[in-house]
Specification:
Elements: E1 5-10, E2 18-24, E3 27-33, E4 42-47, E5 64-69, E6 113-115, E7 119-120, E8 123-129, H1 135-148, E9 161-166, H2 171-180, E10 191-194, H3 201-214, E11 218-224, H4 227-230, H5 238-253, E12 259-265, H6 282-287, E13 290-297, E14 300-307, E15 313-325, E16 328-339, H7 340-368, E17 374-376, H8 377-384, H9 388-398, E18 404-407, E19 412-415, H10 420-432
Parallel strand pairs: 8-12, 8-13, 9-10, 9-11, 11-12
Antiparallel strand pairs: 1-2, 2-3, 4-5, 6-7, 13-14, 14-15, 15-16, 17-19, 18-19
Helix pairs in contact: 3-5, 7-8, 7-9, 7-10
Length: 437
C-alpha cells in the first residue's frame, strides 16, 4: 500500500534555499531541496527513508517519487502536485528567411560596435592572461577609452558609462589608476565601481541587471575576475562552465547597446593554439564573441584577439606607458608596436648577423697572428672551430669585402689589413642596426 502524498513548495526571498514538505497520513516530513531559480523546471527524485518512529499503523512508509514543479522567482506555490505548474505548450521553431536582416535596399546593416571591430554591442568577451600580465590595467584603459570616446589601440570607440566590477584590486588603487589614465569625472562619462558580488551567480546577475536598468547609459560591464562570478565547482567541467557562462552571455544579449567583458586566467603550459590557453573548459572560449589574450614572448608583451563578429588582432607587441603616482608604478596608456612575427624575424636576423660577424672576426684574428698574415684554408677552418659550413661561409663573406684574398692549391688565405678599418665600421653597424627592437 502506498500512502497518498501531497506537498507544497516553500520559498523565501530570491536566492534562499527552500524545502519540499510531503504530507504522509498525519505527519509532515521536511527535506532539503536544491534552490531553483527564475521559473525553471527541474526534475528531481525525493527519497523518503524508513522512519522507525512511525510504525503505529503497521506499515513502514517508503516512497520515492519524481516531482516536476514550476517555481516563480519570488514567493511560494502551494500544493506541488506533479501535474501542476507545468507548461505543456510544445516548443516551436521560428524559421527566418535569408537576408531578413538587410535593409530595404538589400544591403547588410552596419554591425554596431562599442570598440570598432573588436567589441560588438549586445555581446560578451573575455580578456585573458597569466597572473600579473596586465589584464586589469588594460581593462581599465579600455574602460577610460569608452568613458572618453577616444580610440582604443587605434580603433574607434563609442562613448558610454562603464560598470567596473573589480573584485581583487583595492578601491584606492583603482582611483589612482583612473587618475593616471586621465579620467575626469566632471567631463567624461560616469564609471560605476563595484567591489563585491553575491555568493551565487544568479543573485549577482540579477543585481547587475537591475543596476543596468537604473543606469541605461552603461555600455560596458567589466568583471574582474570572471571566476569569482561563475563560482563553478570544476572549471574543467564543460556543462558547469557552459551553464554559468551562458547566463552572462544572455545578460549581454538582453540589452541592445551593452557589452560584457570578463577577465580570466591562462594556463601555465604554453599551447599550440594561443586561444586554447584559456584556463578551464573550452566552453569559455566557445561561448564568447571575442577573446583577447595578453602574454609574453621573448621578454615582450604581446596582444592577440579572435572574434566571432569583427576583425581579429594578429599577435602584436603592446607597450605600456608607465608613470609613478602615490609611490606606485601605474599605467598611463598603451600603444601597439610591430607585429610579433616581424619582431621575431628581425631578432633572428640580428642573431644570425651577430653569429656571422663573430666567425668572421675569428678568421681575421687567426690570420693576424700568422707571420705573413697568411694561412691555408684548412688550418683557418680548424682554428675557427664550430660547424665547418658556418666558418666556410664566414670566409666566403670576407672575400667580396676585400678583407682576405684566396689563392693557390691548396687554397691559401691572406689578410688585407688595409681594409680592416672599413670592415670594422660596417660590421659594427650591421650588428646593431636593422632590427625592430
Amino acid at each position: 500500500m502506498r500512502p497518498h502524498a501531497r506537498g507544497k513548495w516553500e520559498m523565501g526571498n530570491t536566492g534562499e534555499d527552500f524545502s519540499l514538505s510531503l504530507s504522509l497520513c498525519i505527519s509532515l516530513f521536511p527535506f532539503p531541496f536544491p534552490c531553483m531559480r527564475g521559473g525553471v523546471h527541474e526534475r528531481v527524485s525525493i527519497p523518503i527513508p524508513d522512519w522507525e518512529g512511525y510504525r503505529t499503523t503497521g506499515w513502514k512508509p517508503a516512497l520515492e517519487g519524481t516531482y516536476r514543479g514550476h517555481l516563480p522567482r519570488k514567493g511560494r506555490m502551494q500544493d506541488a502536485n506533479p501535474q501542476q505548474g507545468v507548461n505543456n505548450t510544445p516548443f516551436t521553431l521560428t524559421l527566418h528567411k535569408p537576408f531578413s536582416t538587410f535593409d530595404s535596399d538589400g544591403q547588410p546593416k552596419p554591425i554596431p560596435y562599442l570598440i570598432d571591430g573588436l567589441l560588438p554591442e549586445r555581446a560578451f568577451s573575455v580578456l585573458a592572461g597569466k597572473p600579473k600580465q596586465g589584464k586589469s590595467s588594460l581593462a581599465r584603459y579600455q574602460a577610460v577609452c569608452v568613458l572618453k570616446a577616444q580610440p582604443f589601440l587605434g580603433r574607434d570607440t563609442k562613448r558610454g558609462e562603464v560598470m567596473l566590477i573589480s573584485l581583487e584590486d583595492p578601491r584606492h588603487h583603482i582611483d589612482n589608476c583612473l587618475a593616471a589614465l586621465g579620467y575626469d569625472e566632471n567631463v567624461d562619462a560616469m564609471i560605476h565601481i563595484v567591489d563585491q558580488l553575491a555568493p551565487r551567480i544568479d543573485e549577482s546577475i540579477d543585481a547587475i541587471e537591475t543596476a543596468i536598468k537604473e543606469n541605461p547609459a552603461i555600455r560596458l560591464v567589466i568583471i574582474d575576475t570572471l571566476a569569482k562570478l561563475l563560482r563553478v565547482g570544476d572549471q574543467n567541467d564543460y556543462s558547469q562552465v557552459l551553464n554559468s557562462i551562458s547566463k552572462i552571455s544572455a545578460l549581454a544579449r538582453r540589452h541592445p547597446h551593452l557589452h560584457v567583458q570578463g577577465l580570466a586566467h591562462c594556463k601555465k603550459v604554453k599551447t599550440d593554439d594561443l586561444f586554447d590557453s584559456l584556463l578551464g573548459s573550452t566552453a569559455l572560449r566557445g561561448e564568447t564573441d571575442t577573446n583577447i589574450l595578453l602574454y609574453n614572448d621573448g621578454g615582450k608583451r604581446v596582444i592577440a584577439a579572435e572574434t566571432r563578429i569583427g576583425r581579429s588582432v594578429e599577435p602584436t607587441l603592446i607597450d605600456a606607458n608607465m608613470v609613478v603616482r602615490a609611490a606606485a608604478e601605474v599605467v598611463s596608456g598603451y600603444s601597439l608596436d610591430v607585429p610579433l612575427e616581424r619582431w621575431q624575424k628581425a631578432r633572428a636576423d640580428k642573431a644570425e648577423r651577430q653569429e656571422t660577424i663573430t666567425r668572421e672576426q675569428r678568421v681575421i684574428d687567426f690570420l693576424q697572428q700568422q707571420p705573413d698574415k697568411s694561412a691555408k684554408q684548412r688550418d683557418v677552418l680548424k682554428a675557427v672551430g664550430g660547424k665547418g659550413e658556418l666558418a666556410l661561409k664566414a670566409i666566403k663573406d670576407l672575400i667580396p669585402k676585400n678583407v682576405i684574398t684566396a689563392k693557390g692549391k691548396p687554397l691559401t688565405l691572406h689578410l688585407n689589413e688595409a681594409a680592416l678599418p672599413v670592415y670594422q665600421i660596417t660590421s659594427a653597424f650591421g650588428a646593431d642596426g636593422g632590427g625592430d627592437e
